[in-house]
Amino acid sequence: MEFENLDGYTMYGIKEKYAKLAKDSEEKLKLVFDEIDDIALYNQAKVLKAFQNNRISEVHFKKTTGYGITDYGREKIDDTYAEIFNTQKALVRIQFVCGTHTIATVLQALLMPNDTLLTITGRPYDTILETIGIVDNPLSLKNYGVKYDEIDLTEDNDFDIPKIVDYLKNNKVKVVHIQRSRGYSLRNALTIDKIEKVIKEIKAVDKDVIVMVDNCYGEFVEKREPTDVGADILCGSLIKNPGGGLCETGGYICGREDLINLCAIRLTCPGINAEEGATLGQNKNILQGLFMAPSTVKNAIKSAILAASMMEELGFETFPNAFEKRSDIVQVIKLESPEKLEKFMQGVQASSPVDSHVVPVASEMAGYEDKIIMAAGSFVEGATIEFGADGPMRPPYVAYMQGGLTYEATKLSICFAIQKMMEN
Ligand SMILES: *Cc1c(COP(=O)(O)O)cnc(C)c1O
Questions:
Q1: How many of the other CB atoms lie within 10 Å of CB of 173?
Q2: Predicted structure pTM score
Q3: Is the CB of 108 under 6 A from ligand 1?
Q4: Which ligand 1 atom sits closest to the C-alpha of 214?
Q5: For residue 12, what are the domain limits?
Q6: How does residue 20 score in pLDDT terms, banded at 50, 70 and 90?
Q7: CATH number at residue 404
């Protein structure tokens, strides 16, 4: 019967072999997916309650321009974020250009000349190196006289607690920086359990140390956030997880009131603080995106796990593997050959909703030593809560992929990309 051919995989040009691979993987992943659903339900409850407690209304969607002095929505958004992240205060602004800008704002707000910044997750994310002064910049913290040190993670991807404790006993540290997500490394994200344990150890040595967490890619992946387990301040991008795919730009910082006040001064200027800043009609996107975020993040994680499982079945190595506990939305797959990496990226691009007709090729990029190949067909430029992938053209030819607004679309894209890679 023709009726029996109404199959989504077939409709999309996915061959029986790869459709079966996806279906078999889903079968194997049932219990894992149940756990992801459970986390999403918990986070949705948390978000929904915060909206109700803060009495979000249509009036808060109102557009403001100019100084944005009477922007009631902006203040409500701050309060709602603060409740969800369990902090005294929050600063959610479209004036943050990206996630890097939020991290830089925190560091620049909290560190004065002769203060020490200590990172305990090794070398931080590439884009923050110039702010610290690891890579030269005339306005780096280093040039302002801020001291910097870093402690690497252990071989088995955990905090080096003896080394950290020893350092804190012998040096006065103002800010400890933790990067939750992997960045461009093969290490897995640090779980909230691990973050909780290290913060306890840090505070036992020196209760005044400010612990800040780069929370990029981590929001709503677990039931608890770093600020639920003792972090003083955290930050991230609105075109990643907490924007739910609807935010068009911006970033957030949540934390202790005195620290957030300093960040507001740093973002605007002394005297203006958090009291001004037009929202240009973005409040509805920020609120609706936040409302969607637990579900969007769930879709992204399930997609990542499905991709891991299918690729493992085909003999590739994955980080994390399909059954490992996750604390970010990033999936890494070792493809082992330049042709496979190129075909996989082209498959991802060709199955995007936007710019599907564009063929990505590897090219030089500022700040990177090797050529990079990128696939991104997103509604919001560069938004990585939307499905996309990239990888440096060097052994072991690793694909970093993340995002996925809907599970169905991302599953089809993954099947398509795998098929393109395997059939070439
Ligand atoms: C994305 C990301 C950032 C910030 O990047 P932007 O592109 O500036 O938003 C910082 N740290 C980590 C770990 C990230 O994944």
A1: 22
A2: 0.96
A3: no
A4: 11
A5: 8-44+295-423
A6: very high
A7: 3.90.1150.60
Q: Which atom of ligand 1 lies at the shortest distance from residue 103's CA?
A: 10
In one letter, which amino acid is 49?
Answer: K
* Ligand 1 touching residue 189 (CB < 6 A): no
Residue nearest to atom 6 of ligand 1 (CA): 99
Atom number in ligand 1 closest to CA 217: 15
Q: For 66-75, 182-191, 265-274, 276-285, which range has the lowest pLDDT when averaged over its residues?
A: 182-191
Residue 183 one-letter amino acid = G
187, 216, 248: residue to mutate for ligand 1 pocket, most atoms within 8 A of CB: 216
| Domain-located, residue 72 | yes
Residue type, 3: F
Q: Which of 143, 153, 217 is nearest to 180 (CA)?
A: 217
pLDDT per position as a tens digit, 59-109: 999 999 999 999 999 999 999 999 999 999 999 999 999 999 999 999 999
224-243: per-residue pLDDT in tens? 999 999 999 999 999 999 99
Q: And the tokens for 194?
A: 């691990």
| Residue keyed to tokens 């075109």 | 239
Q: Is 183 in the pocket of ligand 1 (CB under 6 A)?
A: yes
The reply to whether ligand 1 has any atom less than 6 angstroms from the CB of 410 is no
- CA–centroid distance, 100 to ligand 1, in Å, is 6
Residue 259: how many other CB atoms lie within 10 Å: 23
pLDDT at 252 over 50: yes
Question: Domain tally for the chain?
Answer: 2
Q: Which two tokens stand for residue 383?
A: 């938004």
Atom of ligand 1 at shortest range from CA of 330:
15
Last residue of a domain, one of 290, 325, 351: 290
| Per-residue model confidence as pLDDT tens digits over 377-412 | 999 999 999 999 999 999 999 999 999 999 999 999
250 lines ligand 1 (CB under 6 A): no
Among the three residues 243, 271, 290, which one is the final residue of a domain in this structure?
Answer: 290
156: exposed, middle or buried (C-beta count within 10 Å: 0-12, 13-18, 19+)? exposed
Specify whether 251 is located in the same domain as 314.
no
Report yes or no on 285 lying in a domain: yes
